[in-house]
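Slides due. Your pick:
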Amino acid sequence: MLVEFTVGNFLSFKEKKTLSLEATPITEYAESNVVKMERHDLLKGAVIYGANAGGKSNLIKAMSTMRRIVLHSFASSSTQKLGIAPFLLNTETEISPSFFEVLFIIKNIRYRYGFEVDNANIKSEWLFEAQRKTEKPLFIRENDAIEVMKNFPEGENLEEKTRDNALFLSVVDQFNGKTAKRIIQWFNDFVTISGLSHEEYKEMTFSMLENKKIKPSMLRFYTELDLGFEDIQLEKEPFNPKEFDDEFDIKTTHRKYDKKNNPVGNVEFEMRSQESSGTNKIFNISGPIFDVLNDGGVLVIDELDASLHPLLTLAVTKLFNSTEHNPKNAQFIFATHDTNLLHYGNYRRDQIYFVEKDPYGASDLYSLVVYKESDGKAIRKDRSFEKDYIQGRYGAIPFIGNLSNISK
């Protein structure tokens, strides 16, 4: 499970900012939203708010960038760039490496893994392990020098096999290191997707619906959302080399009625062309959602609420803050503008995050539980979070100015 994610000097994040999923001592929704582990109480997710261009998407891009480099740096060529963009609005940071670090737990062992990287090279890299309270290093890398500790024998003699633009962890994984493999698998289960360009996920949904154990849960979910169809038909199409991403067809089944509204049969609709954009989106992203719910892991979605009715967004979030639908304790992090969730979403104050830019273009990240009012007091749990946020009490909203001047 994810404990925390930290990013620094990447896109709009100048200083290091941390999103923590470690539960604070507050009491609200402790039974449904908190996972009690041996040494940690962890949250089942977080919701991120902020104005357009405030940095919400950049935070999620930081997560997906770290995941991409971990999973794919070994396969890159020695000259391939790493796709890193530092904070460019400062003369110091524009020439400095970006920082990525995660704390996570695998089988009651806590790991801290991270690296600093520019667009061409890995500048530093580190892996620490805490089987109890004390954290011990497994390896530490500084530029070309990699120090492998005695308690990490799987990394021995692989230092010279590591390119400047490849992670040492990925190299150890390629040589079947047991710890490295567990960590790489954790990153593989750390899934980030877009709520705007969601077409690419429908193939996963198709695959999940072919799973006889998972399909009933997904169909029940669609039915509870009242999307208007009775069933889904999946049809594989003959292979077409010109359309590699379109080898199947998805049709929904609707009831047909006579003039007295008596049912007389069924009609099939083509999902893509005859169903709404919201229905298409909820269908496409339901694959990754139920994949993570079924296997455990972390799901991160940017712009979750785009094209979705607030009740559909709420239904997705409640799958994760649930003991019935989330038995593997999957975690869900998402960015949204849907303020209804601040009232109806049953989120704890330590699960609500805000992203806001300062006057110099740098994004800040803070949770509601640490936010202090002008008198220095914390936000009470009985406040109307939605109303307060809309009124600008917590920041992270657009400054629109006097709308009456727009038409003049």
Summary: The chain has eleven helices and 18 strands.
